[in-house]
Amino acid sequence: MIQTCPLRLSPGDDLRTAIEDALREHETGHASEHKMHAAFVLQGIGSLSVAQLRFAGADAPTELRGDLEILTLAGSVSPDGAHLHMSVADARGQVSGGHVARGCTVRTTAELLLALLPEHRFSRELDPATGFLELRVQSLGQ
Question: N or C: less crowded end of the chain, CB within 10 Å?
Fold first, then answer.
């Protein structure tokens, strides 16, 4: 069963850190040992003053500064990190997109919808084929 968790971030918040913290802090309404271990960001909109995006094939993120609008934001979230992709438009309408790194600073707001998956556990494990920490999905159900 999927649970949804809408979030609104405030000016100055770090986008990626706030998303990761939301999963760590969210409880199912039962005892605190029932923390969530898996979520997806279904969508996000809002504005940033700084975006840190790692473009395809790049080793490090590129910093974009200015009045930036979040056009799309999606990805998976586990207790040991998030894998997020985002596209942003600058004040001239130029669009950039890539992997979200820490350091994306909310300008006015960011409005997000998380899908929490209480019957699953996500983790990141080194995949020898890709050389990256990749998503591992575990079912906690029957």
Answer: C
